[in-house]
Amino acid sequence: MNEDTIRLVVIGRMLRRRWRLLAALAVVGALVGYGASLVVFPPRYTTTASVLLPGQWEERELLTEVDIATSSTVLDLAADKLRWAGVSGTDLKDQVVAKAADGNIIKISGTADTPKHSQQLSDRTAEQFVGFAKQIAGGSADSEAATQRAALRKQVEAANRRISDLAQAADPGQTVEGVEARTSLEKLRTSLEEAMTKLDQAAPASNTAGMVVMGPAVRPTGEAAPTRVQLIAGGALVFFLLAVIGHLAAARMNRRPRTEREIATALGADLIGTVDVPDDRHAHRAEGGGARTRIGRLLGTDVRWDTPAPQRSGDEAGRRVRYRRVCARLRDRSPGPQRLLAIVPEGDHVAHRAAGQLVAEATSGASTGSASGGHPLLRLLPVSVDRPMVPDRATESGALIVVSAGNWTTAELSGIARACADGGHEVVGLVVADPVLARPASPADHPPHHAAPAPAVHSHATGGSA
Are residues 90 and 27 in the same domain? Predict the structure, then answer.
């Protein structure tokens, strides 16, 4: 899979074989999310109070009012009104948010640990904002500007009196010139009054004085995001996705030889043949009862997920033919009686079963004899891949390595080959064991009575299948 594109079939195979582990990690993620909802993100509630600003306001003026609403002075006043134990205006800085909305409305949102506190925070902050804004408008009115407006009003009043005098002094008759003069004077008077009215309405103090809170804030009925349910679901989803990505990344980076040619190259040996081993995962699962083994069996990590499903094989007789052909090739390579080590990496259960069957077939062939002197005798020897050790050459004159594909790295296989060379054993060949799905056994598939069954093989035997 290391060079293949990750396909949906690969993900489906991973979900089928590792669903227990993925489910366990999702539960762990949910617990982490629940813990975060208690410690890092406790339940919070948010509500909003609205303040109306009458008149005409420019955008920069609205932004100024927003800054005033969240200023330290307003928050300190709100904290004094709330009288919450141990809560000051500085503590409220992260709990109050203000923003300008359409229609000259300032929305003040308060976030607290309970719906009641959230409502109180929004209402008190809005009230103190309006009061403080009015105080600023009243206390900071420019006296010079006020004097100038008063003087301007007096001048307007004087101009109105002068207009009245001119209107009376105009031709009292009903001539066209007199009517036009009085009409022009009245228009001038009206324009002056309208200008003064607009000037008064545009005064910031007048607009600020008209601020009003548009009713109390609504008490919230639900938590603010992220809610506890969102944190639990998010934690489960994040852990699940990380587990899936981790599995795919590990499979992508896997550089273990998977083909017969790659394994033969890593060992520096010739391929003698490939044998089929009925896939019986429950057989080796029963071996060992440690806590780590039981946990791996429970979570399904004791079975590799990144290998394709075993292919369906033929009957028992067809599988035995493959073993006999391997033994025959070994006999042809070294005519005459010969003793060989059948080396199997420790933990390779498929290869161990294949080697045991090879030992049985070789023993059966040697006992029946042949024109060429019979099959070589094999002794099964499990070897650790971490620190491979092969005994020095004595009665055995070579080594036959039996492995399954995709379980060992190139370095591990090369280590086994070097251990054979250090012990003076020539690697006479390689046998690759493939797990297959066996068909239900029928009477015709059973071996004949004269065939020797596969015995229990121990590594300390000196020869044959002891």
Answer: no
